[in-house]
Design a protein that fits this description.
The protein is α/β, with parallel strands linked by helices and 263 residues long. The protein has one domain: Rossmann fold (3-Layer(aba) Sandwich), CATH 3.40.50.150. It has a 7-stranded mixed β-sheet, with helices on both faces. It binds S-adenosylmethionine.
Length: 263
């Protein structure tokens, strides 16, 4: 991550060097990290959404696949996965640690690479995790528009916002917003958060409608030091099945392309 006082690194380049790629793999998703705990719950939610909305045998695209966390989970004999990322260092780790998906390196905003993806599609489902919150704002919208074009008319996109402000992140978000402060050189003036309205605006402009949502991350990760990983995981798993899930830091949206807009 960029640090205050240094030149902000474009999100496109943040995971390009092999050391940052390995750090993402080793620390963000270390076995007992808070991110891993939430991912454990999100896996079940993702499986539920895919089972509910996507016929078995469908071809899945995992966009901004990183080291293959999502692609490696979704892939099976019944569900082939194409996994795409702009960073060859991230893809190299994915290929070696989570073989199975068809990994490709490229920029979806490059017309030639987009044509390659169109030839591989249309896809029955796609995912983009930990992307819309942090990616440079000027590329998120065109990327979502292109993703909508890669789906079949009945296809489903599952995209997450891991900084939802309807959660305990509300306080720091509004504090950053009203003080006009940046938390970090890489962040926007409103901090590292995305409001539901911002997320819905991005989806709407890209030609998606929301068909379902799931949430997790209701309790602060800080209490893991006190109650431990297993207890917090149980707590979060229980909260995820109640209306409290709407107050989670991580919201997963199931989206369908609006007919006629992109097809
Ligand atoms: C935080 S990682 C998330 C990886 C994975 N989706 C996950 O949830 O573990 C963000 C990924 O987005 C990729 N990325 C950034 N800009 C991109 C772009 N313009 N096109 C494709 N991938 C991009 C980065 O290289 C990085 O691997």
């Amino acid at each position: 991550m960029s640090t205050a006082g240094t030149t902000p690194v474009s999100y496109n380049d943040e995971f390009v060097d092999p050391t940052s790629a390995q750090k993402y793999e080793d620390s963000v998703y270390a076995k007992t990290s808070h991110s891993s705990l939430l991912w454990d719950i999100e896996k079940t939610q993702l499986d539920e959404l895919l089972a509910r909305y996507v016929p078995a045998g469908g071809h899945h695209l995992d966009f901004a696949c990183g080291t293959g966390r999502v692609a490696g989970h979704v892939v099976s004999e019944q569900r082939p996965v194409t996994a795409v990322d702009i960073s060859s260092a991230m893809v190299a780790i994915g290929r070696s640690v989570r073989p199975g998906p068809n990994y490709l390196t490229g920029d979806i905003l490059d017309d030639e690479f987009f044509a390659t993806l169109k030839d591989l599609g249309p896809f029955d489902s796609l995912s983009a995790f930990r992307f819309i919150l942090n990616a440079d704002r000027d590329i998120v919208q065109p990327i979502l528009g292109r993703l909508a074009q890669l789906l079949t008319p009945q296809g489903i996109a599952i995209i997450n916002n891991h900084g939802d402000t309807r959660s305990m992140k509300a306080a720091p978000h509004y504090l950053a917003k009203f003080s006009g402060k940046k938390n970090d050189a890489s962040e926007t003036a409103v901090g590292n958060y995305l409001t539901p309205a911002q997320a819905l605006g991005l989806f709407d402009n890209a030609g998606f409608e929301v068909v379902d949502t799931r949430g997790t991350g209701v309790v602060s990760g800080r209490i893991m030091d006190t109650i431990g990983y297993d207890k917090l995981r149980d707590l979060e798993a229980r909260a995820a099945t109640t209306p409290l899930a709407k107050l989670g830091t991580n919201t997963m949206y199931a989206l369908r392309p609006v007919r006629g807009l992109n097809h």
